[in-house]
Specification:
GO terms for molecular function: GTP binding; GTPase activity. This protein is of the alpha/beta class. It contains five helices and six strands. It has one domain: Rossmann fold (3-Layer(aba) Sandwich). α3 links the parallel β4 and β5. It binds guanosine-5'-triphosphate (GTP) and magnesium ion.
Length: 201
Amino acid sequence: MPKKDQTDLREYKLLVAGEISVGKSGLTLRLTEGRFIELWDPVIEDIYRKKCVVDKKDVLLSIYDSPDGDGGGILGLTDREILNAEGFLLVFSVGSRSSFDAITSLHQRILRVKDTTSPPIVLVGHKCDLPADNRQISTDEGVTLARQLGCPYIETSAKEGINVEEAFSQIVREIWKCNKEELEQDQHEDTSGCCARCIII
Ligand SMILES: Nc1nc2c(ncn2[C@@H]2O[C@H](COP(=O)(O)OP(=O)(O)OP(=O)(O)O)[C@@H](O)[C@H]2O)c(=O)[nH]1
Ligand SMILES: [Mg+2]
C-alpha cells in the first residue's frame, strides 16, 4: 500500500490564543518539536505543521502560534487570523488570574468575528506544573468557565509534557463534532424545506 503523503492529509488550521506569556509558544513547540524551550523569542510569529494521529486517524495540524504583536497576546491578534482558524485553543496560565480573566472577552471576540455561537474551542489551563502556592486558578474554576463557554477544559504543561498532545487532539475532535452538527443541520434543512425535494415532472 502506498505511504500516505502529508499532502493527502486533511489539514486542520488551529489558533493558539491567550494573553501574553501564558505559554502559547511553549505549548506549540512542545507538540511540534517535542521539547520545552525555557526562553523563546516572543516576536517570532509562525505557523507550525505537525502530522498527528487522533483517534487512529492521520491528521495534519497547522498551528498558528499568535505572536507578541501590538501590546502582545490577545491585543496582537487580528480578525484575519481568527477568521482563518477552524479551531481555537484558548490558553490561560493557572498562575495568572489576569490571563484567566482575559479569556471571556477573547471568547466573545471569536464568536463575533466567526459569526457563530459555537466554534470549536478548547479551554487550556497551562503551566499546571506550577506548585500549589503559585496557582491562582483552581481546576474547579477552569471547569466552571469551560462549562459557561460550552467547551472542554484541559490542564497542560509544556515543561513537564502533560496533556500537550491531548489538548491538540481534543480540538480536532471538537472540529469533527461541529462539522457533524453542521452536516446534520444542512441535511435537516434539505429535507424539511417545502421545496427542498420538489420534483418537477
Ligand atoms: N512553569 C511553566 N512555565 C512555562 C510553561 N510553558 C511556558 N512557560 C514559561 O512561560 C514563559 C512564557 O512562555 P511562552 O511560551 O513564550 O509564552 P507565550 O504565550 O508564547 O508568550 P508571548 O508569545 O510573548 O505572548 C517562558 O518563560 C516559558 O519558559 C509550562 O508549561 N510551565
Ligand atoms: Mg509566543
